[in-house]
Amino acid sequence: MERGMISLENSLDKYFGFSKFKGNQKEIIESLLDGHDTFVIMPTGGGKSMCYQLPALTQPGTAIVVSPLIALMKNQVDALRGHTNENSVAHVLNSSLTKRDIKQVKEDVTEGRTKLLYVAPESLTKQENVDFLQNIQISFYAIDEAHCISEWGHDFRPEYRNLRSIITRINQAPIIALTATATPKVREDIQKNLGMQNAKVFIASFNRANLFYEVRPKVNIEREIIKFIKNHEGKSGIIYCLSRKKVEELSQTLQVNGIKALPYHAGLDAGTRVKHQDAFLMEDADVIVATIAFGMGIDKPDVRFVIHHDIPKSLESYYQETGRAGRDGGEGICLAFYAYKDIEKLEKFLQGKPVAEQEIGRQLLLETVSYAETSMCRRQYLLHYFGENYDPGKCNDMCDNCKFPKKKFEGKDEVVKALKVIEATKEKFKAKELVDTLMGSVTSTTQAYSADKLQVFGLGKDKSPSFWNAVYRQTIVAGLIRKNIESYGILHITDEGREFMKNPKSFQLTEDHDFSSLAAEEESNAAGGRGSGLDANLVKILKDLRKKVAKDQGVPPFVVFQDPSIEDMATQYPITEEELKAIVGVGEGKARRYGKKFLDVISKYVDENEIERPQDFVMRSIANKSALKVYIIQSSDRKLPLEDIAAAKGLDMNDLVHEIENIVNSGTKVNIDYYIQDMLDEDAQEEIYDYFMEAESDDLNEAYEEFDGDYSEEELRLMRIKFMSEMAH
């Protein structure tokens, strides 16, 4: 055989400058060159593109590469042209080309100069392209990002499901399908759809040993993200958000806090997206805040962290997005923030979709919840999801659960109970219904299957639902239970599980994380109620000072600083005006007017008590600098109706009034007299004004009760804005 290891490795060196192949690249390339359909499952950074680029360069004819993103195609074409120093070696054929460009591409392909032709699946369906491709020599077809074929995949594209019929219409040639993430179910779906059940399958390990996985409760998230980035100053990172609005808000917040961050989402024009992507690649920006539109095919090896502001809708999405960290084998931190309310939000997005799609979506979300809440080794859990067994002892503390393990306890009796319930319900239930049965919860499902009549009903009510969820998750990974993906998550007992029921042996369990209680506790701390970070002694000192300042100024204490501001000062210990402006509810106006006395007291208190201040707390809010604030102030100066201001910015009235309250409470004047005069006569205004002047609190409920319902909540709220605006200046 002319082609051998030496000639392939010579080609590798000639075109790409590498002396040896990575992993099983060589075996994959040989399979394709031997004319076999080939299926490659290889993690991001494993060198998938080499598996079709090198054989395309060494064979006669043109390889047709189907790829879902124009940006991804462009990056690869540019890279190939750089390797060969010939522009004609690789081309893109898609809707972005001019007629002249298309003519040049077709000429280069026909003349045999083009070894790789990148096309979007939509371009392949056009009859003119089919006619053209029928008349050229095709070396093979490469289906990149093949998970897009499967409805169970995280990036399902309906047009991908037509590829087999289009290939049949053009010309038969070997197919190589490649993906970075595919569960056993998705693999089966891809092979079946492409008609390549007899393909040679190559599955590389999904383990990325250099990545550190961590999940935190979603509390004080912007402060946490800023603190994290400042602790990794100068390093490249990606932050993923689910909405464009959050991308814009977060990137602005990072910018005003001195972080070189840029937004990236599909709502930006193409020129801006390219500019921001290039700034990130060229290190003019450290952080990209993005929707999932960013990252596919981005070949930046030194991304040091990937943060998920919102938990993604599937573990495949999570794995692929975290896989963009540490592709050079160096540091890669994967930090996700989790709150169950985000899952509920994602579930709402499923409404209105076909029932089967909803079921698939919910099943994928449940897997994400399980990953977030589990206290097992995260690496082990993640790899099990992709059908790979992993010994958690090899994690080397490279996930939060291994680094800070929860206490284990003997759980063989509980495992037996969990298995008995599956057996008693004849293997017809998902985990949720099994837990309901264990807890003795009467639901429509447990009644429909008469589970409430079984002896096992209520067998586990001495424990919590989260406890039993943990048991099921851990027994699945241990191989005692199998989840039937086809049936949307119904659990079956394996042979090992049946053996365990007959002869139970030691089974070490750990309870799951309870993020809901963690979040509630941290929110309470953040609110300044009972948190260990709140200095109660300093609160008293600052409230005494506030009372004195208020008396000197002839205003109620809450006009000077409201309670949340005092409590934040007693947590963060600001000692400069800049730091004071970062305190909740304190803007430039209040910091300038009242700040000095408070800063002097706090500074003295810090020195006398040798307090170590949190160095990372200074977080500027974009509210002080936002275009919305400027728009509201300018519009009210022009006496525009509040309804018009709200409509212009897509707000409802409640949101607009809340924004005005924030502006006024932080010390900036907003004049809404013109609006109030149409609602209340002068006597009514004076009566409410006098009330707030004498009140100990600015609480609206107290004001409403005082006036016995004579004034609406809206009238009182607007008068409070007028009062605060005038008295704080």
Give the CATH class of the largest domain. Answer: Alpha Beta
Enumerate the strands of the largest sheet in spatial order, edge to edge or round the barrel.
Answer: 3-4-2-5-6-1-7
Question: Low-confidence parts lasting 5 or more residues at pLDDT below 50?
Answer: 1-6, 519-532
Query: In one word, what is the shape?
Result: globular
Nearest-integer average pLDDT: 84
* Global structural class: alpha/beta
CATH fold description of the largest domain: Rossmann fold
Helical stretch count?
A: 35
What features would you describe in this structure?
- The protein is α/β, with parallel strands linked by helices and 729 residues long.
- The protein folds into 5 domains: 199 residues, P-loop containing nucleotide triphosphate hydrolases (Rossmann fold, 3-Layer(aba) Sandwich), CATH 3.40.50.300; 173 residues, P-loop containing nucleotide triphosphate hydrolases (Rossmann fold, 3-Layer(aba) Sandwich); 101 residues, Orthogonal Bundle (Arc Repressor Mutant, subunit A); 94 residues, DNA polymerase, domain 1, CATH 1.10.150.80; 104 residues, Orthogonal Bundle (Arc Repressor Mutant, subunit A), CATH 1.10.10.1390.
- 50% of the residues lie in helices and 11% in strands.
- It has 35 helices and 17 strands.
- The strands form 4 sheets. The protein has a 7-stranded parallel sheet with strand order 3-4-2-5-6-1-7, with helices on both faces. A 6-stranded parallel sheet has the order 8-13-12-9-11-10, with helices on both faces.
- The chain is globular, with a radius of gyration of 31 Å.
- The N terminus is likely disordered.
